Amino acid sequence: MTSAPLRVLPISLIAAIAAIAACAHSRDAASEPEPLPPRAPTLAQMLTGRFPGVIVTTVAGGGISVRISGPHSFSLNQEPLYEVDNTVVATGPNGALAWLNPEDVESIEVLKYDSQTAFYGVRGSNGVIRIKTKGAH
Questions:
Q1: Contact assessment for residue 99 and residue 82, using Cβ atoms and an 8 Å cutoff
Q2: What are the residue ranges spanned by the domains of the chain?
Q3: Which architecture characterizes domain 43-133 according to CATH?
Q4: Residues 24, 25, 26, 31: is their CA dihedral positive or negative?
Q5: Bridge partners for 89 per DSSP
Q6: Rounded to an integer, what distance in angstroms lies between the CA atom of residue 18 and that of residue 7?
Q7: Calculated CA dihedral for residues 48, 50, 53, 54, nearest 10 degrees
Q8: Confidence class of residue 56 from pLDDT cuts 50, 70 and 90?
Q9: DSSP strand E in 31-127: where?
Q10: Residue among 1, 84, 88, 87 at smallest CA distance from 43
């Protein structure tokens, strides 16, 4: 029976390879940034693509403009009416609801037909966006 010759690396070479691998691993781990926690979506992201006929665009200054297809008011602006927890609220500059934390939003409903918005009268002629927060009962 013949045996294959055994190839032995010097111990100093094995130690050097291990040290280089350890340094490279610790450098990679230190240079990679830690992942950020997931951010809650903005109100614009919550509305975009979820409701047919709703067009959301960003405007200068960081706000959003929401248009709901269907009948519109001729005398007023084209922005819908916002209702948060059964209270009609005014939007800030450029249509922003900056005070509303997206993490607190439980549900969003878009009303766009006359039969749905009749309760709101002329104010609801451009549609109504009803937002319910998690703290509301």
A1: no
A2: 43-133
A3: Beta Complex (2.170)
A4: positive
A5: 82
A6: 18
A7: -30
A8: confident
A9: 54-58, 64-68, 81-84, 87-89, 105-111
A10: 84
pLDDT band with cut points at 50, 70 and 90 for residue 88: very high
Q: What one-character DSSP code corresponds to residue 112?
A: -
β-strand pairing of 54-58 with 87-89: unpaired
The pLDDT of residue 109 is: 92
Helix (H, G, I), strand (E, B) or coil at 128: strand
Is residue 27 within 8 A of residue 34, CB to CB? The reply is no
Distance CA 86, CA 65 (A): 22
Q: How far is CA 48 from each of CA 15, 32, 41, 44, 58, rounded to the nearest angstrom?
A: 58, 33, 11, 6, 11
123 and 81 in contact (C-beta within 8 Å)?
A: yes
- CB contact at 8 A, 104 and 135: yes
Task: Return the structure tokens found at 96.
Answer: 């922003």
Tokens representing 117? 């918005």
Tokens of 130: 């009803």
For residues 84 and 110, what is the distance between their CA atoms, to the nearest angstrom?
Answer: 12
